[in-house]
Amino acid sequence: MPGANELSAVSATASKPNKFVTELNPKGIKPCCACPDTKSVRDECFLRHGGYDAEAAEEKCKNLVAAHRACMAKLGYQV
């Protein structure tokens, strides 16, 4: 059985509103967890093409970056 301190911590956490909930993001997905599909392919592209030439990687991955930004924008995040 939880002690008094544990109960107050649980109730404080349960009553705290999710600051990420918006009209565009009703589930309140945090930016770090949003759009995992576009994020993973974008990251993989930079890992594959990054190396020492960041400009070349940006050029090769620009469509994936744009797709991830569009996905984030649909959730109300401006990146």
From TrEMBL:
Keywords: Chaperone, Copper, Disulfide bond, Metal-binding, Mitochondrion. Gene3D superfamilies: CytochromE C oxidase copper chaperone (1.10.287.1130). InterPro entries: Cys_alpha_HP_mot_SF, Cyt_c_oxidase_Cu-chaperone. Pfam families: COX17 (PF05051). It comes from the Eukaryota. The keyword Transmembrane does not apply. GO terms for cellular component: mitochondrial intermembrane space. Cu cation binds at residues 32-33. GO terms for biological process: mitochondrial respiratory chain complex IV assembly. GO terms for molecular function: copper chaperone activity; copper ion binding. The keyword Metal-binding applies. Belongs to the COX17 family. This is Cytochrome c oxidase copper chaperone. It comes from Tilletia caries (wheat bunt fungus).
